[in-house]
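Hello forum,

I keep getting stuck at the same step: I have a sequence, I want structure tokens, and every attempt I make locally crashes halfway through. Rather than fight my setup again tonight, could one of you with a working pipeline run this one for me? It's a single chain of 527 residues.
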Amino acid sequence: MNLFTALQGGWPVTRQDAAILSERGTWTWDDLDRATAMVANLLGSLHLQGRNGHPPIVAAHLDKSVEALVLYLATLRCGAVFLPLNPAYRAAELGYFLEDARPAVLVCRPDDQEWVIPLAAHGQVGHLFTLGTQGNGSLLTHACLHSDQHETEPRHEGELAAILYTSGTTGRSKGAMLTHGNLLSNARTLLRHWDWRHDDCLVHALPIFHIHGLFVACHCALLSGTPMRWLDAFQPTAVLHHIADRSAPQATLFMGVPTMYGRLLAQPELQRDLVQGMRLFISGSAPLSPTAFEAFQARTGHTILERYGMSETGMLCSNPCRSREGARVAGSVGKPLPGVQLRIVDDEGAPLAADQTGHVEVRGPNVFVGYLGMPEKTAAAFTPDGWFRTGDVGRIDHDGRLHLVGRAKDLVITGGLNVYPAEVESLLDRLPGVTESAVIGVPHPDFGEGVVAVLTTQAGHVLDEAEVIRAMREQLSAFKCPKRVFVADELPRNAMGKVQKNLLRQRYADAFAQESRTQLAQARTGS
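Reply #2:
Ran it on my machine without issues. Output:
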């Protein structure tokens, strides 16, 4: 089934009800139906050609807007494949994606058109349109010339619906190919697991070039026929305004990344009485610190629901929504979702017992079919028996909950011993004055890698490196303790709030340079 058909099947019979309340007005369900029909008819009129046996690709390099969401839905509706791209990408980055994916259509911001044109030509993009956040641009100008009725193009569950490029922090960014079946199965599972109701209303403040905002948030709302209060960009005061607003439709759900929750906690007005109408707060895309988890609980009376997912798989695990199914545990992403199989294996691929740390592998109907144009990478990503190697490291406790301890590539091997950054970070985050930490490994002359901690602090708080190291030695084995501690104004993050440890490793690569020079001098003199 075409994913759009399934989503549209959840829309209420009364199509004049509000579907999206944006900063520029209200969209009804009928407005969405008619607008997606016109854009789908425009795309259909172009007689687009796909490549390598796949449907044609429509790429979007756009700021968030309801009209950008319409483009996504229209792409599904006409049977094409949607490729969302971070609007922060500049020429060199965008050029790579266009050459790699070879989209038939590219839609960009009006102000970017001049520098995008040569990139589109070089990437052999057949059609270029523009779309601005005010509904301006050539896409809607052309779409308005087409009918507002459209019969959805049939697609079976194994056909491609979307391509998401991985973050590409190491090596070439890879295009994860997701089918209609992948996306629909995951949305239906989340709808049941998170108890979406017809009287729910989602405060949507996430970007829509990523799985969290585009698929998890939008699919659940559209599939359940519940309205969204739509913010084109995250602003903590605007989010709290929507949460506090008791007019219909009243907000009941919020999805965010840890950075958003940190900024909400910085607002004094975030108190229990303000959020009394809310049913559920969900966090994902990056680990939520236990400190933030507990602070939010204390301030609001709400326990944030953490979940775990990836671009290649959609959502994999979730803490429980219903209290009868157990508590939401800080530092855990919960149990595997129905239909998802998950296992922990050692370096040789042998399954590990409960509470043993190893590599996380998954399989299920939500798992992608491969990387675009990269058969070798695809083959390497799957085990011979069909499990996807996530690249994450974690353990499953005796209650079946998954605890992530980091990415395999972020593992620090010091003196031949493994250090999992999340374990050290959880203790650093609890030190007085520390707001956040990141633990990395950088070259060390004796140990191969030395453990380094990079901290951010509360305003006016001064940290002493020796005191931090001493405090860690009281709680951890010596080999796990940071050998150097640095304070930064902020930690580098990608668009979804994940700390970019590759940039930190570059920044602090010379942390032990003096030790290296000393050893080299001693070796030369024989002293």
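Residues 29-45 form the longest helix (17 residues). If your local run keeps crashing, start a new thread with the error log.
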